[in-house]
Amino acid sequence: MGMGAGIAVIIAAVLLVALLIVIALVVMVVITYNGLVKARNSVKNSFAQIDAQLQRRFDLLPNLVETVKRFATHEKRILENVTAARSGYLSAHDAKDKIAMNKQLSATLKSLFVVSESYPDLKANENFLKLQEELAETEDKVTFARQFYNDAVTIYNNKLQMFPGSIIGKMFGFKEEELFNMADDDVRTAPILFDSNELTDEEKDRYPQKCPHCLGNLDGTRNCPYCGARVV
User: Fold this and answer.
1) Hey, how many other C-beta atoms are within 10 angstroms of the C-beta on 1?
2) 84 and 196 both lie in a single domain
3) Secondary structure of residue 148 in the 3-state scheme
4) Predicted confidence (pLDDT) per residue in 112-123, tens digit
5) Domain range for residue 102?
């Protein structure tokens, strides 16, 4: 009788330990899951602040296009690129696509403002100047909000990469988010100065005066100083 009671006590102890382990695991899963949800929501909320500014920026474009049309009728391709960037943004469904459209717009606008130097009446137009100022102001706000977004993304991604978040995140389908970089690596690369001695005759013949991608003036560079594309 005493031996049976001892075995029962051991079994009860083992079951209790097992139960405590299960409870601890459940608590760990719940806490980690809730932490990931909170971090992911912080990322979404941070991007919502950027999205509001990007929406304002893209809402200014129709007025900008109409203003430029009145003075620079020959810049049809750049205006088409501006319109295409806006359409792409409006049809984008996630942060990655919207950020990509914003980069495309930034390169196109730089080209547009460079081209505007050739149109004195456009440069002096009050509405054009006001739109330039509003676009620049909005971009500053996007830059400011971008830091909060990237901080939130870093915290969230860290949780997904560290134990136990790496396991639990995978179990529940959490995915890492991308940082909002203002420009791609090739855009940040400094242009290589044009050196005619390094070009073949064929390259000299096809060397463009304007970037075929964003139509920015090349000013003797192998890489476009506006969108970063290599043109030779």
Assistant:
1) 5
2) no
3) helix
4) 888 888 888 998
5) 2-182
